[in-house]
Amino acid sequence: MIRNYLKIAFRNLWKNKTYLFINLIGLSVAFGISTLLLLTAYGLLTFDQFHEEQGAVYRVYQKVIEPQGEQYGNNMPLPMRAALKAEYPEVKLAARILTGNAQLLKSDKLINEMIIFTDPEYFQVFGYKLLKGDPNTALKDLSNVVLREDIAKNIFGDQDPMGKTLTINHGNKEQSFLVTGILEKGPENTSIDNEILVRIENISDYSLNKDRWDNVQHALYLKLDEKTSLAAFENRLKPFTAKYYKGNIEQLKKEGAKPDARGEIISTRIMGLADSHFDTKVGGRGQAINKIYPYTLLIVGLVILLIAAINFINLSIAKSFTRAKEVGMRKALGAFKSQIVGQFWGEAFLICVAAFGVGIVLAYLFIPQYNAIFRTTLSLEMLKTPALVGIILLCFVLITLIAGGYPAWAVTRFNTVEVLKGKIKVSGSSGGIRNMLIIFQFTMSVLLIACTMIVWTQIKYLRSKPLGFNTTQVYSIPIGHEISGKRLLQHFRTRLANQPRILSMTGSDVNLGRGQDGSFSKSVLSFEQNGKGIKTNMRTADYEYVKTLDLKLIDGRDFSETFATDTAGAAVINETMAKQLGVKNPIGVTLNTEEKHKVIGVVRDFHFESLHREIEAVSFFMNGFPINYIFVKIAPDHVDETIGLLRKTYNEVAPKSEFLGSFLDENTNKQYQKEERISQIFFSAATLAIILSCLGLFAIAIMVISQRTKEIGVRKVLGASVMSIMTLLSFDFLKMVGVAILLASPSAWWLMSQWLSDFAYRTPIQWWVFALTALIAIAIAFLTVSFQAIRAALTNPTTSLRSE
Fold first, then answer.
1. How many angstroms separate the Cα of 704 from the Cα of each of 313, 318, 436, 691, 729?
2. What is residue 564's three-state secondary structure?
């Protein structure tokens, strides 16, 4: 019996090759795309959970209630780690992490790598294993270095790196280290970098700041006693904060700050490491992501699967009418309903199994392209995770039951006598379910189209919004560690002084946007001015900073070689900083910083950070941090030749370093890579959803029009035109699309409003987005249905009436 069913199944599938291939292609693509989206979402939702397999890891952060609102900070002062371990026995392990750039010497070539300044307990806190070396002693001495396995392989090749000396340039100094450990390469979905590890005491300003509580620069992670709860520990931190931040708290009270619900103005708190990745307030907008992003990927994947399953249902039901006499004959000969269901569901199961296998193969084949387009690091190795395998198999079983079960059940409801007489029609309930499925398909399609358009308009806004500085003509060059920034800048000025296409140049410690070196840093300076607390971003700037970036000078002047005091005692501030000072004319005001800087210029506010954040106060000093970047303003003609000249000039002084120059517009655009990925995913999903939905709509049109053949013939005999018949047949389908538009539009508006709330600067959601989306959906549906409608309307009525 089973063999007979299989023969019939394969015969029917092969007989209806068009339907077979349509179903197979639709389900295969849906399974493949959904698998890739599931892997992406799983990687994001399990971000940093690798480190918590042997106990929870907490990140320390602070909440500060200022008169203007709440502020959060996740960088801590250097002495906090020792103080917490000394005063709280429940703190079992603690590690500070400060990330920087370093260069390693290999065959007379300097290689840029990330360096992590940390504490000896790093390995125990984050659960990393050493392939070579003892984790308890690997960072015992200040001259020890631990390398990740791939970095060690790149530097030393097949040689054993243990015990070898490695020269590292960092913080404008060259230092020799002894390799005492080789670290395993952890998973990709982690925020804890571990390329090169050295002791945090090696940072250049450690001795100056090791006892200062007003200088924050590193992240701090803890492991607590297993019996200690997060809430209990945070409550015990109240006296700790009051003790070490007494002056700050009193100053904020003077300024009018009110305690929060816990009675604190400054509170020291902890958050789970995995949770911090999804908290844009604490985790930081540059590193954290909104949790709606991975869930959106899951929903999109599920929607694509459901649309493909609905297509399968509709195509199966449409094709079942050609097999109605087979069903009627089986029932007349005594076949049980379960046998007929089993026959039809078995055929559906074979298609689903084949589609699932092809889908997995497609996912495997397209992973490299997917990773390149969406900047992910997916691998089918992730499918070895039992939980992930279980989820995929569960989805497969559910889709198989939905896609194969309903059509199988529907055909068993055919009336035997009516079927054998050649009279068959879909019941009212079946028609209602069919219509609901079509509405669902187009609701999801319209939703994805609207979301795609809104994301696209926001990205266009981010790229086109004036940032307040010149992005198209200014070229940014990372200094590297082979030479000091001051020396390289001076060499550039001397070497290129007479080049007409070099309009001006300057230097800074921080890039604008993210350059090819990928580095980003932020320094905040706090001080008291006339009894008022001042907080400002602190950046280094050299001569002609304002001129090179085309900043708008509201008052005063730029840094100038004419004034010798500018190098140590001058400051240029922005409008927001000037407002903080609260004086009518800030020019000449001496800032109460450690070096007593006098304000010489005020520039109009500009977006020195991404548009996720509102413009903050910023102050520029010439004697701040070392220069790490050179900004060169170049003429718009012969750009390639000018860049070649800059490259040649750089290589004259730093021949071992890689030239990583880029224009500032490239740097600022890189700040929105997450948004671009969302846009690409939505666009791809919307395109696929529309194609699959139209495929299903086409099948339904065939089925419905085939049932109205006699009606069409009668109408033509009575004088109906082709256009009127086409309009009649299309109207019912377009009504369903209209309902889908009404359901999808408010959902898209709400979802995108939530997504846009992550931006301090955003474009409003325009009405035309929904109008255009509606027109696109209606046009696509009309074109899909009208093909069959015109074909039916052009059929000879005598043929139609005779066939009935």
1. 15, 9, 15, 20, 9
2. coil
Q: Which residues of 749-783 are buried (b: 16+ CB within 10 A; e: fewer)?
A: bebbeebbebbebbbebeeebbeebbebbbebbbe
pLDDT band at 558 (very low <50, low <70, confident <90, very high): very high
Torsion sign across C-alpha atoms 736, 737, 740, 745: negative
Q: Alpha-carbon distance 45 to 573, whole Å?
A: 41
pLDDT digits (tens, 9 = 90+) for 369-390: 888 777 777 777 777 777 778 8
Helices (H) and strands (E) in the chain, counts: 27, 22
CB neighbour class for 256 (10 Å; exposed up to 12, middle 13-18, buried from 19): exposed
- pTM tops 0.85: no
| Coarse DSSP helix, strand, coil percentages of the chain, rounded to the nearest 5 percent | 50, 20, 30
What are the structural domain ranges in the chain?
1-47+291-425, 57-277, 474-669
Length of the chain: 804
The DSSP secondary structure of 427-462, one letter per residue, reads -HHHHHHHHHHHHHHHHHHHHHHHHHHHHHHHHHHH
State the burial class of residue 118 (Cβ atoms within 10 Å of its Cβ: 0-12, 13-18, 19+): buried
Cα-to-chain-centroid distance, residue 514: 16
> Are 99 and 170 spatial neighbours (Cβ–Cβ below 8 Å)?
no
Does the pLDDT value for residue 530 go beyond 90? no
Among residues 122, 140, 125, 299, which one has the least CA distance to residue 194? 122
Residue 32 to residue 176: CA distance in whole angstroms: 50
- Supply 307's token pair: 């649309």
Indicate if the pLDDT at residue 285 is higher than 50: no
CA angle 577–582–584, rounded 5-degree value: 105
